[in-house]
Design brief:
Helix content is 62%, strand content 3%. With 184 residues, the chain is mainly α. Helix 3 packs antiparallel against helix 4. It is elongated and about 55 Å long. It is a multi-pass membrane protein. InterPro entries: Cyt_b561_bac/Ni-Hgenase, Cytochrome_b561_oxidase, Di-haem_cyt_TM.
Amino acid sequence: MLKNSKSSYGWVAILVHWLMALGVFGLFGLGVYMVELTYYDAWYKGSLDLHKSVGITLAALLLFRFGWRLLGTQPEPVAGSSKAMNRVAHSAHKLIYLALVVIVTSGYLISTADGRAIEVFNLFAVPALPESVANQEDIAGKIHFYAAYGLIAVVVLHALGALKHHFIDKDKTLIRMIKPLKDD
């Protein structure tokens, strides 16, 4: 089952979800690590290039995810879940998407503030905007920093909610994000 159904996510949505989760946590960890490096550290340029390349890849995956969501079916909440908790979960998902868009955009603005394109794994380059604003790198850097920490906070709550569904509520919320389920 590649596509979503009314009761379950399909393999495409599941794969994109987990790839993005790995990307977010990997980029966050790398970002925390690399801000401690000095210019003369051997891994300084390599970590920055890797962070940018994975960030652009994550941006492309995010665009694909938005398209997949718009064009496909979204599973309904599992039976027995409260409307209030469904609203909280829906709001958390919106916050995650908003934070991802802000992080990707601010990362792009940081990386292109000097007018240079972003090299992606030495395969292609994402061009810079023709104009930049004063202190663009600093302003975008602060936004990127706070949005990244905010994203991690919401993602941790999201994961705790999934674990609550699995271990306390004993429903299929988490299971259907691990493997597609047959329609009930």
